[in-house]
Amino acid sequence: MALDPASRSRYNLEDATVLLLDDTSMGMAILVQIVTGLGAKNLHRCSDVEAAKKVAERHELDLAIVDGMAPSGMGYDFVRWMRTNCQEPNCYTPVIITTAHTPVTDVARARDCGGHIIVKKPFSPIAMLERIIWVAREGRPFLFSADYVGPDRRFRDVGPPKGGGRRREDLNADTGSANAPAQDAELQPRLAS
Q1: What does the alpha-carbon distance between residue 33 and residue 130 come to, in Å, rounded to a whole number?
Q2: Nearest to 105 by CA among 118, 91, 96, 116
Q3: Could you tell me the pTM of the whole model?
Q4: Is 190 inside a domain boundary?
Q5: Is 97 domain-assigned?
Q6: Domain tally for the chain?
Q7: Which domain holds residue 117?
Q8: How do residues 26-56 score in pLDDT, each as one tens digit?
Q9: Helical axes 74-85 vs 49-58, angle rounded to 10°
Q10: Are 116 and 135 in contact (CB under 8 A)?
């Protein structure tokens, strides 16, 4: 989903209650600027998991933006706690997980703890807005099992686009054979080394 920055559409989080969990002052400052720029007025700023748990137990939340808190991963643990220990409606709160590092293990951990989506730092305000809108519109059902509580981790698989041929056949027809030697003599010495 890509929003046109010049769009006249307006999105406002004025009535939303937003939990922000980030243990760095710079990360928190950026999150606060972004969500207040989107109109949010009711913010709960938490720099540690214990403070975030208290907020989640006492206030009804509309959105949570949680840093994964590498290397300990306590942010992921907080999201899992929120999904399994919070009362309704907070156990269903949309959660956007932010992180500066996105190795496959952290992406899987974000998915498996019950987060809706993971966003890599640094991110722009428009990127965060796109993710907030996506989470609000996507409507994945919640699953409850012995080892997972959260939005359905599967995305709709609609298969390949209709009307196209096979990729290899399309490639050979459009650009020539993939096995043909390079035509540019200037590139050949660099490719050989």
Answers
A1: 16
A2: 118
A3: 0.75
A4: no
A5: yes
A6: 1
A7: 17-151
A8: 999 999 999 999 899 999 999 999 999 999 9
A9: 20
A10: yes
How buried is residue 192: exposed, middle or buried, by Cβ count under 10 Å (0-12/13-18/19+)? exposed
Is the CA virtual torsion 160, 162, 157, 107 positive or negative? positive
Per the domain annotation, does 188 fall within a domain? no
CA 157 – CA 38 distance, rounded (Å) = 32
For 2-19, the three-class secondary structure string (H helix, E strand, C coil) is: CCCCCCCCCCCCCCCEEE
Confidence at residue 19, expressed as pLDDT on a 0 to 100 scale = 97
- Given a contact cutoff of 8 angstroms between Cβ atoms, the answer to whether 13 and 57 are in contact is no
Stronger pLDDT, 87 or 169, i.e. the higher one? 87
**Phi and psi, residue 78, nearest 5°:** -60, -45
77-93 residues labelled b (16+ CB within 10 A) or e (exposed): ebbbbbbeebeeebbbb
Structure confidence at residue 1 (pLDDT): 53
CATH number at residue 138: 3.40.50.2300
* Residue 182 within a domain: no
Return the structure tokens found at 166.
Answer: 């096979």
